[in-house]
Structures are given as structure tokens and as C-alpha cells.
Write a structure and sequence with these properties.
Elements (H helix, E strand, L loop, with lengths): L1 E4 L12 E3 L10 E6 L2 E10 L14 E2 L8 H13 L4 H7 L10 H14 L17 H15 L15 H14 L3 E5 L6 H11 L5 E4 L5 H12 L5 E4 L11 E6 L17 H8 L1
Parallel strand pairs: 6-8, 6-9, 7-8
Antiparallel strand pairs: 1-2, 1-4, 3-4, 3-5
Helix pairs in contact: 1-2, 4-5
């Protein structure tokens, strides 16, 4: 028996995971398909079942989405924290922030897509045309020295002040280079979709030998799912996106950059009104 987080309507009065009969013990974060009233929905295994009276009356889960590795414990912990902090059900948060297309697919459909993505995936090769970083200005050099000291001290959060055009982007691109060189993944958040293509072009040129994907609501459902999966499998080295990208599953996450962190666009305005800035600090 396992407890499964499912997306429930607000008027249901249910806020926690539901219990189902499982064929075997399953790790937390496993994606499954389960019956819910007259429907079949995707859920996330949240732990062992809490029904003290045995299995009587419990429904068995429909299938396990074995083609997708489980979400990490740290990701599930963040969803737990956000559900409590923003007073929403854990299922609404955990399922609501995953790509919509993910919630529609059964095991066979997942397996078909995963096999295709595995065939298509090719690690970018170093390009001689990749631009080299410019020499830092004295101000940038001072900030970079401070950054190196913070990294050595394992400081979790740093705030970089600077006016538009002052060279902040170069600072965090160099920080990203350090994290990537250590085998880590990097997440860069921007406040608006219309800023993403500009920064994406600069990032992809700078890291031409890396796999860079974007996550934002302007993508097609299929592209958003593929990019999410690339991040989840750690095939993507650098993920660039708007506030929803703070929920990207990244097993090797080493650095989060919140560009223009004061921007109100980082606050979700409907449903679960989470702050991507706050969650980035929690995740860091």
C-alpha cells in the first residue's frame, strides 16, 4: 500500500495523498496512473499508505510509469514545503506544476517517447566559433573575486546589485561556467517570456558545447514535456525559463540564477500563488 498525491478539485475537501494498493513497494517520487472516481489520472507516490485498517476497500493503482525515473526526494520535499506555506493541497501543487502533457500519458505512450528521445539525443560538440568571455571590468573582477570566496564558504545565497547594462549577466554566466565544469546543472530564471529568446541566444552561443533547454508557457505542450524530460534525465546542462522553471526536476542542480529578482512576475497570480524567487532560495 502506498500514498499517492493526485490533483483533486478544491471543493473535494481532501488535501493529502490518497492510499492505493501497489504491486510492490515503490520509492517516493514514482509516477503512477491511478483510478480517481470515474477517471484515471497520473499521480506521484508520496510515501507508505496511512490506512491502519488494512487494504479492504482500497483500489489498486492502474500502472507504474516505469519509463520515467522517480522525482527526487528534494523535489518532493519542496512541493511539501510549498503546499504547507501557500496553503494548498500537495496534489494540486505537485501535479499542477508538472508539464500538462505528462499528466495525460500512460506507460506505453511514455515508453514510445522516451525511446525516441534517447535515439535523438546528441550531446553538442565543442565549436570553434563559440565566443570567448570578454575580459572583466574592474568592477566585475571585484564581484567575481567575492563570488569565489562565497563558493569556498558554501554560502547558499548571494544578491548582486547593478543597474541595467552594468554587466551582471557576464557575472552569472561565469558562475554558470564554474558550476558546469563541476558536473552540475544550472537553472537561470527570467521574469518574462519575451526576455527568454534574447538570453537564450546569448547562453547557447556561450555554451555551444552544452545542452541548453528552455521552460516556459510559450512552448508547445510536446516541446515543454521534452525539455522537462531532458532536465529530469540530466541530459540538459543548463535550463532557462520563467517562474514555472523553478519546478524543473534537475538531479545535478548546482546553481540557480534569478535574473531581475525584484520583478513581480516571479509571483504566480492564480491557483497556488507561489513565488519562484522564494522557492529558488529554498531550493538553493
Amino acid at each position: 500500500m502506498v500514498s499517492v498525491a493526485v490533483e483533486l478539485p478544491q471543493h473535494s475537501g481532501l488535501t493529502g495523498p490518497l492510499d492505493y494498493v501497489a504491486p510492490s513497494p515503490l520509492p517516493r517520487g514514482t509516477l503512477v496512473r491511478v483510478p480517481l472516481a470515474s477517471r484515471e489520472v497520473t499521480g506521484v507516490v508520496w510515501g507508505e499508505g496511512g490506512c491502519g485498517g488494512g487494504y479492504s476497500g482500497l483500489k489498486p493503482m492502474t500502472e507504474i510509469l516505469e519509463a520515467v525515473p522517480p522525482l527526487s526526494i528534494s523535489w518532493c520535499d519542496m512541493a511539501d514545503f510549498a503546499a504547507t506555506y501557500y496553503q494548498r493541497s500537495v496534489g494540486e501543487l505537485a501535479l499542477g506544476v508538472l508539464p500538462p502533457e505528462l499528466r495525460k500519458l500512460g506507460h506505453a505512450a511514455w515508453l514510445k517517447r522516451v525511446l525516441r528521445w534517447q535515439r535523438d539525443f546528441k550531446k553538442p560538440q565543442p565549436s570553434l566559433a563559440s565566443p570567448k568571455a570578454l575580459e572583466p571590468t574592474p568592477e566585475q573582477a571585484g564581484v567575481l573575486a567575492s563570488w569565489d570566496l562565497l563558493v569556498k564558504q558554501l554560502a547558499p545565497t548571494a544578491l548582486l546589485h547593478g543597474s541595467t547594462g552594468s554587466g551582471k549577466t557576464e557575472i552569472y554566466l561565469r558562475a554558470a561556467e564554474q558550476a558546469l565544469a563541476q558536473g552540475k546543472q544550472v537553472l537561470i530564471l527570467v521574469p518574462e517570456i519575451n526576455l527568454t529568446p534574447q538570453l537564450e541566444a546569448r547562453v547557447m552561443a556561450r555554451f555551444a558545447h552544452r545542452t541548453v533547454v528552455s521552460l516556459h508557457s510559450g512552448l508547445s505542450p510536446a516541446q515543454r514535456l521534452k525539455n522537462w524530460f531532458y532536465a529530469h534525465m540530466a541530459w540538459a546542462d543548463l535550463i532557462l525559463g520563467t517562474r514555472l522553471a523553478v519546478w524543473a526536476s534537475m538531479p545535478r542542480l548546482g546553481l540557480i540564477v534569478v535574473d531581475e529578482e525584484h520583478d513581480p512576475s516571479y509571483k504566480q497570480q492564480d491557483g497556488a500563488r507561489y513565488s519562484a524567487r522564494d522557492l529558488a532560495v529554498y531550493r538553493g
